[in-house]
Write a structure and sequence with these properties.
This protein is α+β, with helices and mostly antiparallel strands. It has a single domain, classed as L,D-transpeptidase catalytic domain-like, CATH 2.40.440.10. Helix content is 24%, strand content 24%.
Length: 174
């Protein structure tokens, strides 16, 4: 476990890098952190795990879409998808404190939605808290509040950002 001073220094460094516009996914700061080769989300347990070679590196508490049970079927259903995807695009300038795009919908999701005449939606992310909160901090920590994304605290988002790389596989389980 890292010492609080090191965690604070990493948080401060990342914040300064992002604020200055110099943050890239391959920054040397990321080399100080173990790298995950798989992300697993357990929706029922509200947990996100970063793994490397089958060993859990870190576990984080999460919030889900406001309709947390069941697989995402269509745009606007407020569900978090279930399946296997990739973390494919990073955004340090999102409406939330950092975001990493999940490659939903995959081919199966598209085929299922088309068969039902539905738009599967998209824009599923792992992200931190809103940059402009409209609710209390307690609400964001204790409720499922996203439109279908996976949300974590801002400090946890920094660790996820630094411990994953583009195209890290993610498995979202019921």
């Amino acid at each position: 476990m890292r010492k609080p001073a090191l965690r604070y220094a990493s948080l401060l460094s990342l914040t300064l890098l992002i604020g200055a516009g110099f943050m890239q996914p391959t920054t040397s700061l990321a080399s100080e952190f173990p790298q995950a080769d798989l992300v697993i989300v357990e929706k029922a347990k509200r947990k996100l795990h970063l793994l490397n070679n089958g060993e859990i590196l870190r576990t984080f508490d999460i919030a889900l879409g406001i309709v947390p049970t069941g697989d995402k079927e269509k745009e606007g259903d407020f569900r978090t998808p279930e399946g296997r995807y990739m973390l494919d695009v990073r955004n340090e300038n999102s409406e939330y404190f950092l975001s990493i795009h999940v490659s939903y919908p995959n081919r199966d999701d598209l085929n299922e939605a088309r068969a039902k005449g539905l738009d599967p939606g998209g824009a599923i992310m792992i992200h931190g808290q809103p940059n402009v909160p409209t609710r209390s901090e307690t609400y964001y920590r204790t409720q499922d509040w996203t439109n279908g994304c996976v949300a974590v605290s801002n400090s946890d988002m920094i660790d996820i950002w630094l411990m994953t790389r583009p195209y890290t596989p993610i498995e979202i389980r019921p």
